[in-house]
Known about the structure:
- This protein has a single domain, classed as Porin, CATH 2.40.160.60.
- It is elongated.
- The chain has a 14-stranded antiparallel barrel with strand order 1-4-5-7-8-9-10-13-14-17-18-19-20-21.
- It has helices at residues 2-17, 29-33, 47-50, and strands spanning 61-67, 71-78, 84-86, 95-101, 114-121, 125-129, 142-157, 162-184, 190-210, 216-223, 226-238, 250-258, 261-271, 274-283, 290-299, 302-308, 314-324, 329-339, 356-367, 371-387, 406-423.
- A hairpin with a 4-residue loop joins strand 7 (142-157) and strand 8.
- It contains 3 helices and 21 strands.
- By secondary structure, the chain is mostly beta strands.
Amino acid sequence: xxxxxxxxxxxxxxxxxxxxxxxxxxxxxxxxxxxxxxxxxxxxxxxxxxxxxxxxxxxxxxxxxxxxxxxxxxxxxxxxxxxxxxxxxxxxxxxxxxxxxxxxxxxxxxxxxxxxxxxxxxxxxxxxxxxxxxxxxxxxxxxxxxxxxxxxxxxxxxxxxxxxxxxxxxxxxxxxxxxxxxxxxxxxxxxxxxxxxxxxxxxxxxxxxxxxxxxxxxxxxxxxxxxxxxxxxxxxxxxxxxxxxxxxxxxxxxxxxxxxxxxxxxxxxxxxxxxxxxxxxxxxxxxxxxxxxxxxxxxxxxxxxxxxxxxxxxxxxxxxxxxxxxxxxxxxxxxxxxxxxxxxxxxxxxxxxxxxxxxxxxxxxxxxxxxxxxxxxxxxxxxxxxxxxxxxxxxxxxxxxxxxxxxxxxxxxxxxxxxxxxxxxxxx
Length: 428
């Protein structure tokens, strides 16, 4: 039973920063519309995230802001009972904000060799709420998370064909997870556990941009491993007084190395009005091997917990298209497919992951010289998969447990909107 609480406490770290799972890539509305194939196709201030090396090729300085309301719908069909459970998750609202600035001695952004950027975005923020009494309530009932990455960036235009850039990443996040506990009050109500805490980490984002012609461009980006740490987590329990000594309220610490990501992209204009973009990414999830967790109020049954994860490397492929409808309007579409790093037997309710397939559409409108508006809609399906958590269960001598076995099926809906204000000088 105590080990189940340990599972919940350790679960929050990967759930907060997992790159697949319920998370979608929504760092820019225009990019989302193209399946987030943006490594070699530079459009706006979101280049701070997608490819710092291409930021210096932006012709105008800009301030960018966007938001993406995310709604998810999940189901779990338990194998041995055929009981169907559903999520009742509220909408979450990840955001992205970017500033890109640079000019030559005559105050002309278009001729600047250097561009300085600052990004603040929430790549990992959502809520999962399972219905009351669902099959896995003793593993997880809800998770609420919010993470912000802050990234100052420098981009340098070597010449008209090459650009390089790099940024420092500071990551901070909050999380609240809850689960039922299999001890009961006199009225038959189960006990309940709440785990919450803050996590911080550091990393880097670097990129190279190469544009050999007006029709063809390439991009290569590297996002480093980010080592997140939790120092002041808190665990609290609502249980009958007769069992309270088995559930010590107190703090915890833990850590997790988030994976490095390497992405190669190419963009091509077969005709003047059409641009095609393709990205392929390698995600180094092999570093996510074991979650280690330490308690400030240890007991003989609850001291240091190590939960196996044994992830493999992940891969994703993204394809997008943009078409210039008229002078001020563009249309966009994209598809993506992401291969899950979670092995069979390691699926858990906080991350019921499988391969992802997504489809997106969008429009962009340029209003005069200063404002650009973008809107997109993304639909993502986490492919139905028979799964269980048998390889993640840690037991003490004499304990037995039945894995949570069944079929997860998840859909994600994510509309995005953004506005960019472009700065011009009198000579533009």
